[in-house]
């Protein structure tokens, strides 16, 4: 992709109300723009990152045997009244009436909808266990939305739900989802910790949160460096544990949460099926959420410097930036850049070619702000020596590399051998 072909609108300064790093940098890098408090539009660069996060989540959920669905965002009040959450959920639930005066809400989560589907679609134990997920926009009417995408009212979420004939079966899938989440966050190249957690208004007695470690995190988590013990600090006093004297306290951003819901929703909504003896059994249920859009902000909170974003390679909008110096003044330079650009693309490298008629300093500043992991600079002097200038986003110094080996060099840097 060429910079003249995309909407690239960087800002030198972020708005004064942008409180945390990810909010400031996402605005400055031209990834998002605000429509209303806690409601954002995603621009092309932001969407590229969002879709990469989404793809990793989808690949791992599919590999775990979960089935993708797409559930209605607008939900009838009747289902929430059945579960008991219409009043319990509180003012975060955005309620509305249709033209006939019937009550609805914009879904902040989908336990009621999926349970309603399952009670009509699953009749026999032979159809169980069953695991479903979706990636969809949610809405929670936060009293004070802040921190940009981190605590927005509208956000993109992966929510999953499993159904079982027994508690033992639920626990088996719960452990499968735990391992799946571990793979997801590992592939996203984030430093994270899974911790014991409070289930809140979702319900159930057992749950784990997955936290990206960052100084700006709103949660405090405690974990042992000598064992697998880890918990949200709020639960420390209520959880029995071995005397580890080596607990470490860190701040975390919650990006995932898995729950063993038990029969909270299935019992209230009469979601049953027949077992092998033709007896009606109330289904056991699990719930598994990932904040897809929040991951983007959390990755920035964990990976940035004074110049801008430093993307993990797995979710960078582009892997490589090509920066020709004064290309519009040199036919030789244009031809060399275009030739390498086409060959890189042909080798599966996601390249952003900065073909703007800008000063080198402007191009370098923008590309460092955007956070592209690798950069190759073309110049007349370099062509005279048959070299390019390479600089990784985390590198302090640049280095010259032979033009003839540039593709192999970049393939190795991007993990494409």
Defining traits:
417 residues, alpha+beta, 9-stranded mixed beta sheet, 5-stranded mixed beta sheet, 12 helices, 23 strands, elongated
Structure description:
With 417 residues, this protein is of the alpha+beta class. It contains twelve helices and 23 strands. The protein has helices spanning 21-28, 44-63, 77-83, 85-88, 111-121, 167-187, 264-268, 292-302, 331-346, 360-370, 380-384, 406-413, and strands spanning 32-36, 39-42, 67-68, 74-76, 94-97, 103-106, 130-139, 154-164, 192-196, 206-213, 219-224, 230-232, 247-262, 272-274, 280-282, 284-291, 304-305, 308-309, 320-324, 351-353, 374-378, 387-392, 399-402. Strands 3, 7, 8, 9, 10, 11, 12, 13 and 16 form a nine-stranded mixed beta sheet that branches. The chain has a five-stranded mixed beta sheet with strand order 20-19-21-22-23, sandwiched between helices. A three-stranded antiparallel beta sheet has the order 4-6-5. Helix 1 packs across helix 8 (292-302), helix 2 (44-63) crosses helix 6 and helix 2 (44-63) crosses helix 8. It is elongated and about 80 Å long. 40% of the residues are buried. The mean pLDDT is 92.
List the helices and strands and how they pair.
Blueprint: H1 21-28, E1 32-36, E2 39-42, H2 44-63, E3 67-68, E4 74-76, H3 77-83, H4 85-88, E5 94-97, E6 103-106, H5 111-121, E7 130-139, E8 154-164, H6 167-187, E9 192-196, E10 206-213, E11 219-224, E12 230-232, E13 247-262, H7 264-268, E14 272-274, E15 280-282, E16 284-291, H8 292-302, E17 304-305, E18 308-309, E19 320-324, H9 331-346, E20 351-353, H10 360-370, E21 374-378, H11 380-384, E22 387-392, E23 399-402, H12 406-413
Parallel strand pairs: 3-7, 19-20, 19-21
Antiparallel strand pairs: 1-2, 4-6, 5-6, 7-8, 8-16, 9-10, 10-13, 11-12, 11-13, 13-16, 14-15, 17-18, 21-22, 22-23
Helix pairs in contact: 1-8, 2-6, 2-8
